[in-house]
Each structure stands twice: as structure tokens, then as C-alpha cells.
């Protein structure tokens, strides 16, 4: 109910505020008038006023639209919750009766009959609660349906939009300057101005793109130069390493020859 009356009062308040002058404290009306003024300056009487109003409602009254969508599904939600409570209560009641019978043997039917009374009372009380929830859900849906028929946020919004459209077209538009063409010469001049503006915009975009491409190419050239320097350093390192390996091989061969000579002299001395 709070959501219903809140959205309805919001739309009604905006409807009452629509007048010949804009309330500067109302951001929605001020935003709508500014958007309408900008569009009217360019297109004149060809301005699409309903589209501007719909865009303003969607961007500035999103909370009210959300409440309106929730109220559209609230009736079915209440009925669904009532049915959910009904089936939940019936399931619990049937489950308690099933456990009562399953826990007793066939020889204990007299005691079963004595305990069935209390079990049935608890089960029937659960069924009563289940049907009460269904009645509450259906009752709430009926009340909400009646209130929505009397205090309809959607109807209030449509009335607000229609009055705002009339106010913008009949009261605000005559006070606004327009650049719309009054004859073919003015229309041709506007087309030429639009083409010039578009060409200037394209020229600026092309210049920015060229500058960005030039900076990218400079960076790529620096990267390639660094890679070439790295390859050159690696080649010098490989050449130096190859010379070191060759000298090490010669040293190893000299060392092997010296070891063999020492071994030969030791063997000769042992024989003598």
C-alpha cells in the first residue's frame, strides 16, 4: 500500500506542478525543459516531445517506474504466496499423520485410536493455518486490485505525460529560440553548416588518429632497435664464448700431453 500510494502521489504532485514557469526545486521538470529546449533549438516544430518526456521519466523517475512494475506483479505474487502457504501447511499436516500411523504396530490399534484424536487436532490445525494463508493471499490480491483500479499509478503517469506534452508545446515552445529552417535556403545553409561541422570533426579525429599512429610507430621502431641491439650483443657474446672454448680446448690438450709425459717418465723411473 505504501508503494502504491507513494507512486500515485508522486505522479499527481508532478501533474500539479506543471505550469507556465518551471519550479527550480524540481529536478525532473527542470531536466525535461532543458532537454526540450536543446531539441527545439535544433529541430523547431519537428521536435519529438513524447520521446523527450519518456526519456526524462525513465532517467529521472526510475524509482517510481520500479514501484509501478512491482505493483503490476503484486497481485499474482500474493496469490502465489497464499498457495505456497497452503501447500506447505497441508504437507506438514499429512506428514504428521503419516508418522503417527507408521510409528505404531498392528497390535496397537486401540492405542492408535486414542492417539489419533490428538494427532488429528494438530493436523487439522495445520490445515486451518494453510487455508488461512490462502484466504489472506486472495484477500490481499482483491484489495490491491480494487485500490489499483481507483489509485492507478500508470493512469496518473499517463495523465502527467499528456499534460506535460501540452505544456511544453503550448507554453514553453513559444518562448524558445529556434534554429529550424523557415525556407529552402535556410535548410540548404543548415545542411552546408552540418557538413562543415562533420568535416571539421572528421579532420580532428583523423589528426588525432595520425598522431597516435605516429607515436605507436616510434615506439615500435624503438622496440625493434632494442631487439637489434640485443641480437648484436648476443652475437658478440657468442663469438667471445667460442674463442674462450677454443682456448680452453687447447689448454686441455696441453694439460693432457703434460700428464701423459709425466706418467711416461714415472713409468720409466719405476722400471729402472
- Classification by helices and strands: mainly alpha
Question: What separation lies between the terminal Cα atoms?
Answer: 126 Å
Mean pLDDT: 75
What is the helix fraction of residues, given as a range?
Answer: over 70%
Shape verdict: flat
Radius of gyration: 45 Å
- H/E topology pattern: HHHHHHH
In DSSP terms (H or I, runs of 4 or more residues), the helix count works out at 7
In the predicted model, the low-confidence regions spanning at least 5 consecutive residues are none
Most strands sheet = none
Compute the number of strand runs: 0
How much strand?
A: under 5%
Can you tell me about this structure?
This protein is an all-alpha fold. The chain has a domain at 2-180. Helices cover 87% and strands 0% of the residues. The chain has 7 helices and no strands. α1 (2-17) packs parallel to α6 (153-172), α2 packs antiparallel against α3 (49-60) and α3 (49-60) packs across α6. The longest helix has 88 residues, at 184-271. The radius of gyration is 45 Å and the shape is flat. The chain starts with a helix and ends with a helix. The model has no long low-confidence stretch (mean pLDDT 75).
In short:
With 272 residues, this protein is mainly α.
Amino acid at each position: 500500500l505504501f508503494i502504491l500510494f507513494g507512486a500515485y502521489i508522486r505522479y499527481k504532485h508532478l501533474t500539479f506542478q506543471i505550469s507556465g514557469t518551471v519550479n527550480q526545486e524540481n529536478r525532473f521538470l527542470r531536466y525535461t525543459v532543458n532537454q526540450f529546449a536543446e531539441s527545439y533549438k535544433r529541430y523547431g516544430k519537428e521536435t519529438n516531445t513524447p520521446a523527450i518526456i519518456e526519456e526524462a521519466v525513465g532517467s529521472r523517475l526510475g524509482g517510481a517506474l520500479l514501484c509501478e512494475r512491482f505493483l503490476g506483479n503484486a497481485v499474482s505474487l500474493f496469490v502465489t504466496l497464499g498457495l505456497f502457504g497452503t501447500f506447505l501447511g497441508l504437507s506438514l499436516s499429512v506428514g504428521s499423520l503419516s508418522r503417527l500411523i507408521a510409528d505404531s504396530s498392528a497390535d496397537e490399534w486401540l492405542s492408535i485410536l486414542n492417539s489419533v484424536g490428538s494427532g488429528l487436532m494438530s493436523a487439522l490445525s495445520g490445515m486451518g493455518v494453510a487455508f488461512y494463508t490462502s484466504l489472506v493471499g486472495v484477500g490481499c490480491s482483491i484489495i490491491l486490485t480494487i485500490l489499483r483500479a481507483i489509485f492507478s499509478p500508470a493512469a496518473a503517469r499517463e495523465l502527467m505525460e499528456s499534460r506535460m506534452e501540452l505544456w511544453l508545446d503550448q507554453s514553453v515552445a513559444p518562448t524558445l529560440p529556434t534554429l529550424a529552417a523557415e525556407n529552402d535556403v535556410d535548410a540548404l545553409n543548415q545542411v552546408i553548416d552540418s557538413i562543415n561541422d562533420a568535416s571539421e570533426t572528421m579532420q580532428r579525429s583523423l589528426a588525432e588518429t595520425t598522431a597516435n599512429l605516429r607515436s605507436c610507430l616510434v615506439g615500435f621502431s624503438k622496440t625493434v632497435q632494442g631487439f637489434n641491439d640485443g641480437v648484436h650483443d648476443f652475437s658478440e657474446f657468442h663469438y667471445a664464448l667460442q674463442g674462450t672454448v677454443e682456448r680452453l680446448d687447447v689448454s686441455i690438450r696441453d694439460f693432457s700431453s703434460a700428464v701423459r709425459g709425466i706418467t711416461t717418465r714415472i713409468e720409466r723411473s719405476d722400471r729402472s
